[in-house]
From TrEMBL:
It holds the Pfam family Transp_cyt_pur. Keywords: Membrane, Transmembrane, Transmembrane helix, Transport. The chain crosses the membrane at residues 36-56, 62-85, 106-126, 146-167, 176-196, 211-237, 249-278, 298-320, 341-361, 367-388, 421-442, 454-474. It is found in: Membrane. This is Cytosine permease. InterPro entries: Pur-cyt_permease (IPR001248), Pur-cyt_permease_Fcy2/21/22 (IPR026030).
Length: 503
């Protein structure tokens, strides 16, 4: 691959795939990481997630607590995932090879691929619907399959173009998106201050049957937003110099998620208004339609702008990471640009089929929750591995698979580390069994907690216990630890030269 990516122009197409980013090109910082993460979450799709507490029947106050607890817990799990990019100069899927093996890191690539397609689709759908709905109220544009199709298609092509140009153009888009979308969401305070009632009671209150199921369900939906970024953080953090303070990097990640209270609370607040003024929309789970129905006329244009800006930000961050991962899975066939184009075309086809042929909006929402249930234990294993290894990695050995080689510190058993895989497979499988999404998907063990979805808690706990147990029972080779680590004494110098061989 071409490593000569020294042109800093926004319009210079990025040529880097998943190889290690050279030190002289690492010019990003924690503030840039903040903008990328927050820009990807400061969207209409996040506002839709913020409406879920009302859809679940919670009061405004209970909804606030559910969102705050879910986002904060998710951000604490997410924060360490921002360290792998600066340490290894590559994306998190490749970095996961240190704990799953250079072949086992395909698990991370596959999870990030599915997550990206799901969230990209949801973003385009919600943004396109809001855009056409607003245009209908403003200028009388008919809401037909043709107009919706044109909105989805043009929007998706725009996102795809930004992704092809790569990280620096992506960063510029998110600089614009962060501030503009935030101002537009804050403008909503003036649009909805009059009809808003902070004492909205909902349909389920504390002490009533079903309250805790609804509260935990809403908290898990909020938690899913930061968790969904776990596989992608390395895509952007790899441009941060490795000597950058780890505390500053993790602080940027946490603060970016705290900032998502803006779209989350916008969605929650406006959902309470819709529930009072247009309850039929809430009954039909159509928050976007309800929002447009209750919005003052002057706020239609800001809603459209939020849809365009936010959707572009989410779509670009998702699709960029997807192209990056696919290029790493098939390094000899696909460059980053070719992979981005391929996945972009497949995602666009998926959007059109889902919207016009199968009505898969609810199914995709379920799909996203199931993906997150599988992604969480993968993240936990990587974080525990980071702590156990005391932050030591050999970036060059992580690229063995990409270069078509064998051997290295992370070869383990023919490229597979069954300690990581042995913890992830059963914890993800058991977590899926505990998923409880009424009317959508209920796992075989989903009713054991009285209707409360405890899938993320189960999969987090099981992955942690199993991975630590396997590391204790089957200690990893001494070479995976740093040369200054007591566990690696005598394991480095003579073995370094013979670590790898051409496949």
């Amino acid at each position: 691959m071409n490593n000569n990516n020294k042109d800093q122009s926004l319009t210079q197409i990025e040529t880097h795939g998943v190889e290690q980013i050279p030190d002289n090109e690492r010019t990003a910082g924690p503030v840039d990481l903040f903008r990328m993460i927050f820009g990807g979450a400061n969207t209409f799709a996040t506002a839709v997630l913020g409406s879920f507490p009302v859809l679940f029947g919670l009061s405004f106050q209970a909804g606030v607590w559910a969102i705050v607890s879910g986002v904060l817990l998710g951000s604490l799990i997410l924060a360490p995932m921002g360290l792998f990019g600066p340490l290894n100069g590559t994306n998190n899927a490749v970095s996961s090879g240190a704990h799953f093996g250079v072949h086992g890191r395909i698990v991370g690539s596959f999870l990030s691929l599915l997550t990206a397609i799901a969230f990209f689709s949801l973003s385009v759908w919600s943004s396109g619907d809001a855009l056409i709905g607003g245009a209908k109220r403003l200028i009388g544009l008919p809401e037909t399959d043709l107009t919706l199709g044109l909105a989805y298609g043009l929007f998706a092509i725009l996102v795809l173009t930004v992704c092809i140009y790569g990280f620096r153009f992506l960063l510029w888009v998110n600089k614009v998106a962060v501030w503009s979308a935030s101002l537009l969401f804050l403008l909503g305070i003036f649009a909805f201050a009059g009809p808003f009632d902070s004492h909205y009671a909902g349909t389920v209150s504390l002490g009533q049957p079903g309250f805790w199921a609804a509260f935990i369900g809403a908290a898990l939906v909020a938690m899913s937003n930061p968790i969904s970024f776990g596989a992608f953080l390395g895509d952007w953090a790899r441009y941060i110099p490795r000597e950058t303070s780890r505390q500053r990097i993790m602080a940027a990640v946490v603060l970016s998620q705290i900032a998502t209270f803006i779209p989350f609370l916008f969605g929650l607040t406006t959902a309470t208004i819709v529930a009072i003024q247009a309850p039929d929309y809430i009954a039909a789970n159509n928050y976007v339609g309800g929002l447009l129905a209750v919005s003052p006329s002057w706020f239609f244009l800001p809603v459209c702008l939020i849809a365009v800006i936010g959707g572009m930000s989410t779509g670009t961050t998702s699709l960029y990471g997807t192209g990056l991962d696919m290029s790493s899975v098939f390094p000899r066939l696909l460059s980053r640009v070719k992979a981005t184009l391929l996945i972009g075309v497949l995602s666009i086809a998926f959007i059109f089929i889902g919207r016009f042929a199968a009505n898969l909006v609810q199914s995709v929402s379920t799909f996203a929750v199931l993906i997150i249930t599988c992604t969480t234990p993968w993240m936990v294993i990587m974080i525990i591995g980071l702590v156990v290894r005391r932050g030591f990695y050999c970036p060059d050995d992580l690229q063995v698979f990409t270069r078509g080689e064998q051997g290295g510190r992370y070869w383990f058993s023919h490229g597979w580390n069954w300690r990581g895989l042995g913890a992830w497979i059963p914890s993800a499988a058991v977590g899926l069994c505990f998923v409880n999404l009424p009317g959508q998907f209920v796992g075989p063990l989903g009713e054991l907690a009285g209707g409360i979805d405890i899938s993320l808690l189960v999969t987090l706990g099981l992955a942690s216990v199993m991975y630590l147990m396997l590391l204790s029972l089957f200690p990893e080779p001494a070479l995976v630890y740093g040369p200054k680590d007591p566990r690696s004494k005598g394991a480095h110098a003579p073995a370094e030269a013979a670590l790898r061989q051409a496949a």
